[in-house]
Amino acid sequence: MSYTPTPDASSPASPKTWAIVVWALYLGGAVTVGIAGIVGLIVAYLKRGDVAGTVYASHITSAIRTFWISLIAGIIGFVLSFVGIGLLVLIAVGIWSLFRAVRGLLKALDAKPIDDPEGWL
């Protein structure tokens, strides 16, 4: 009889896993009208301390920054939609947010840090 150990359900996920989860939730926010993105933000804040000192700390910082900038720019775009240029702002914010989430996910999968987590790109 062979014995195959089962993973301990209480063992914590790796920092890499949390970074991937956060970025995946952000991407899911594109199809869930932001709900998954909010969950991603909550996970990012909850796991920020767990990933400190690892290559994935830059991912969490970048993800949190991406959420808040996207939210503020989205609100500005909504307000400007009454003037007529809001749609352009909203499209630009959407493209920027998706770019950052895809780039973050790819870098997390490759175990690479975000070069400038507080930068604009």
From TrEMBL:
A Pfam entry, by short name: MamF_MmsF
Membrane topology listed for this record: Multi-pass membrane protein
Main location as per UniProt: membrane
UniProt keyword Kinase present: no
Residues in coiled coil: none
Residue ranges crossing the lipid bilayer per the database entry: 20-46, 67-99
Name of this chain's protein: DUF4870 domain-containing protein
Organism, scientific name: Siculibacillus lacustris
